[in-house]
Amino acid sequence: MQLLRQMLDESDWWPGLDADQQQRVHAAIVVRDIDAGGIFSARGGLVAGWLGVVDGLVKIPIDAPDGRSMTLAGVPAGGWFGEGSVLKDEPRRYDVIALRDSRIAVMPRQTFHWLIDNSPGFSRFLLVQLNERLGHFIAAIEHQRLLGPEGRVARCLAQLFNPQLYPSTRSRLRISQSELGLLTGLSRQRVNQALGRLEELRLLETSYGGVTVVSVEGLDAFEG
DNA sequence: TCATTAAATTGTT
DNA sequence: AACAATTTAATGA
C-alpha cells in the first residue's frame, strides 16, 4: 500500500460517499512522510485532524511518571486513528511515532466534522471504530498484568489484525521482530522466542520480515 | 537476466 | 549485548 487513493478505496467508509463527497475529502487530505523513529505530532501540539496510515507502521506510546514507556496501540497501514482527540477538540495527548518509514494522511478536523454531518455511513463507521477501540483498551488493561511475554506478543498481533479497525491488513503482516519488540515493550530476543513458541502452537508462521497469522482467534484467546 | 554487494533481519550465545 | 547466518534489495554488466 503506497497511495492515498488506494488506502481510501480500502477504507470501509469510503465507498459510502458519493462522487462529490469523495472528491472533496480527497482534496482536503494532506499526506506527510515520516522517517523511521520520527515523531509525527508532539504531545500537546495542535490536532491537525484525523490520521490515517497510508504506508508503514506507527505506534502511540505513553510515558509513565517513572520514565518507563508503554505502547497504547500500534496502527498498521490502512488504519485510521485519533478520532477521540478530534471529536473532543482538544490537543492530542499522545505522541505518534513511526516504527519504520511511514506515510500519514491527515484529514483536517473541519472535513472530519463535515463528514459526520453529511455521511451517515461515515458516522456509523466511527461508532463501530470507537466501540472496537474501547474493547481494545479494556482488554489491554486486563491483560497487561496477567499475560506473559508470549501472551503479549499474541495479543499485539491479534490487535494489528483486528479487521474492524484495520480492514486491509492481510494474513501476512510485514513487521520485523524488533518492531514487535517496540510495540510490546519486550526485547527483540524475547519476541523471537515468543514467536517460536506461538509457531509451535500453530497460531502463526514466521518468515523473513514478517509473520503470517494462522489463527487470529487463537492469538486473541491465548493465555499464558 | 544474472552475479555481486550492501543492508536488513533473524537465530543464537 | 554481540555475533554469525540468512534473506532481501540494489546495482551494474
Summary?
The chain is an alpha+beta fold. Helix content is 43%, strand content 23%. The protein folds into two domains: 141 residues, Jelly Rolls, CATH 2.60.120.10; 75 residues, Winged helix-like DNA-binding domain superfamily/Winged helix DNA-binding domain (Arc Repressor Mutant, subunit A).
Structural write-up:
The protein has about 220 residues and is of the alpha+beta class. The protein has 2 domains: about 1-140, Jelly Rolls; about 145-220, Arc Repressor Mutant, subunit A (Orthogonal Bundle), CATH 1.10.10.10. Helix content is about 45%, strand content about 25%. The chain contains 9 helices and 8 strands. It has helices at about 5-10, 20-30, 85-90, 110-120, 120-145, 150-160, 175-185, 190-200, 215-220; strands at about 30-35, 50-65, 70-75, 80, 95-110, 170-175, 205, 210-215. The strands form 2 sheets. Strands 1, 2, 3, 4 and 5 form a 5-stranded antiparallel beta sheet that branches. The chain is globular and about 50 Å long. The chain starts with a helix and ends with a helix. The mean pLDDT is about 90. It binds a DNA duplex (13 and 13 nucleotides) through helix 8.
